[in-house]
Amino acid sequence: MSEYKYKIQNRPPVETAIFDFFKVGPGPSSSHTIGPMKAGNDFYNKISALSDEVISKAAAIEVTLLGSLSATGVGHGTDSAVLAGIIGNIPEKCPGSVLQDIKKTPEKKYEIKLKNKSITVSLDCIKFGPVKHDSPYNNTMLIALLDANRNNLFEVEYYSVGGGFIQWKGWKEEERGKPVHPYGTMRELHQRLQETGLTIHELILENEMSITGMSRPKICEKLDELMEVMYDSVKRGLNNVGKLPGHLGVWRKAQAILEQYKTNNFEADRLMGKINSYAFAVSEENASGGVIVTAPTCGAAGVIPALLYAMRNDMSLGDRALREGLLASVAVGMLCKHNAGIAGAEVGCQGEIGVASSMAAAMLAHARGYDACVVENAAEIALEHHLGLTCDPVGGYVQIPCIERNAMGAIKAYNAVLLATAEKDTQHKVSLDAAIMAMNEIGRNMNIKFKETSAGGLAVSVVEC
């Protein structure tokens, strides 16, 4: 038995809350935009609480980006995101225009208040450090409060660990309630389902209530709000045309794809074309800094909304089925994060598009009323056929190949459900746990140049024009 196989069979339970996993915020990247904005805002809150003596000496703030945050930070808008956080913005309440305005006026200085002291910050405070470093996470930020002689008064080492989650040196997980039905693997989840007689969505709901203390109606209300953000991102993307930001000159295509296929004579082509257009719509909104939902990341934010929108508008599934399907997708996504990773900088794009496709497959299968074994098989098929996928954004922008990959991930999710429902579940040979184990092994052994650094793959083979 391999060391990792032993570990996955002896994992602590998943304790992530739904609304920590799904986050609303501006694109283009959960690891490079939402996470750094949260880190910047957290740092501001920390230094605001320092003693009067320390604050009286404060003269400047300096941020050093390391790893892929440094390598692709310009294209992802990481510098603008950190600065936006420092000056008081949080992702869920930050319109995309804030980041765009910061980028358009790089010379602008912003004043922040620390009790009775004011200091100014600007994009000049953000430094791009080495790509290779010794910190435990690829996406690392060093944020320091300096005195007039550039001496450190206070410093925090932050890590953007994927999906908009952040940690810092010395970080400890927040004390909350424990899941009433604990599981750390898909195998254990099946055991809990058998013991309780619950469906996947019911078990996830009861765990969320136990972890957060929220009522069932409140959770359902927040899920509906989350889905509305997803639907809105599809609609906005379908209505927007023109070029995306950056020097690549990528044109928005969502509207054109929809027009091409909504009246197509072939029914199968019509549905596939619509799903493609919905995925393009959200991904293009993300690439332009629009507000989206991390599902599980910004770079993969188009997959689940594309299928969700199609399920509602083209497959005539009701809102309750959609909500329950989304809860099933959470179970899969949390297992992937818990036992492998969802950040391109940690495990490659298999952890972003691959996990999103796996979640979307589980969502569709569950919403259509299939049992937990079929849901698992659909999720496994979708993930298995993204294994090894590199994260190699051309020019550091979340555009090529990211936008098309979202559409491919959505279509693969749909096809995974077709395959899973056409076989006897007892004859399916590969478990979801095995696919997650493989993703983790591949990701940890993947060369760093294929993990969101734009130093390999398509990022260097495509001639930018």
From TrEMBL:
Its EC number is 4.3.1.17. One of its GO terms (biological process) is gluconeogenesis. Pfam families: SDH_alpha, SDH_beta. It catalyses: L-serine = pyruvate + NH4(+). SUPFAM superfamilies: Serine metabolism enzymes domain. Belongs to the iron-sulfur dependent L-serine dehydratase family. NCBIfam families: sda_mono. This is L-serine dehydratase. It comes from Succinivibrio dextrinosolvens.
